[in-house]
Amino acid sequence: MDEPIPVTRAVDGGTAKLMPDLDRPHSWLLTVDDAPQSYVDLNDPNHLEFEYAQRLAHVLDETGGPGTPLDVLHLGGGALTLPRYVAATRPGSRQEVIEADRGLLELVGEHLPLPPGSGITVRRADARKALEAAPEASADIVIADVFGGSRVPAHLTSVEYARAAERVLRPHGRYAANLADGAPFTFLRSQLASLRAVFAHLCLIAEPAVLRGRRFGNAVLVASHSELPVAALARRAAADAFPARVEHGEALERFMGGAAPVADADAVPSPEPPGGAFSVG
Asked: Does the reported pTM lie above 0.85?
C-alpha cells in the first residue's frame, strides 16, 4: 500500500496543508499558514486529538439524552472533526456546517470526504450572516470555532452576535465557542461579559495554566438560558490527558473582573497568538 503523502494548496485564508499522521493510519492534520486547524481520523471519528475539540465534545455529550439525535449548527468547518464525531455518537442528528473558505471546503471534500448518510450539510457562507439567516429556535447547540488565520473575526465577538446565536437556539439550547487568549485576558473577559449580557448561565473550560495566565491557549466558553451541567463537565475535563478546569458562578465573576460587553461598533478580533503558540512544522 502506498504511503499517504502531504497535500498543499492555496485556499482563501492562506496556504492549507493536509499532513498524514504516519503513526495513525487514515489520520490527517489540517493546517492553514502552519497554524493547526483540525485533526481527523477517518477510521475513528470518536478520536479527538486536540484538547479544545475534546472539551467541545464534552459539551455535546452532555446535551440532550445519551445518544439522542441533535440539531447542530457549526460555525466554522475546518476538516469537519466535530460534525463527524456527532454523526458517529448521535446517529440521526441533523447538522449544518458554515465555512467561509471555498478553497478549504474543496480541499477537505476532495481528500477527506464525509461518509454517505452522515446527515451533515456543508455550506459556504459567512458565519454571522448564516447565523442571522438561520430559522429561529432551530438548533439544540451552536458550536463556534471560527478563526481567520489564528484570530476570531471581530464580527463574531459582539453582543449583537450573541443575540443572533440566542435566537437560533431552542429554550434549553447551548452555545459553545472555542476561543484563544492569554493574560491579561482582555478579549476573553469581554467575551464572557458579552455572553452574560444575553444568556443566564455561563461556564469556561480551560487548562489551569491558561487560566492562571502562565501561557496563551484555548478556552471553551459555554452559555445557555438553562442551567449548565458544570459538575459533569468538570468530571469529564478533569479526566482528559491534559486536565482542564470548569470555572462558573462566583469564580467566573471574579475572573471577568468587571469587564464590559462589546458592541459591534467596538468589536475587535481575538489577539494574535505569540510566536510559536500554535504553529507546527
From this structure: yes
Which of left, alpha, beta for 89 (phi over 0: left; psi -120 to 50: alpha)? alpha
Q: Write out the chain's pLDDT in tens, 281 residues.
A: 567 899 999 999 999 999 999 999 999 999 999 889 999 999 999 999 999 999 999 999 999 998 999 999 999 999 999 999 999 999 999 999 999 999 999 999 999 999 999 999 999 999 999 999 999 999 999 999 999 878 999 999 999 999 999 999 999 999 999 999 999 999 999 999 999 999 999 999 999 999 999 999 999 999 999 999 999 999 999 999 999 999 999 999 999 999 999 999 999 999 999 876 665 54
Strands laid side by side in the 94-99 sheet = 120-124, 94-99, 71-75, 139-144, 169-181, 217-224, 201-206, 245-248
What is the torsional sign of CA 32, 185, 81, 196? negative
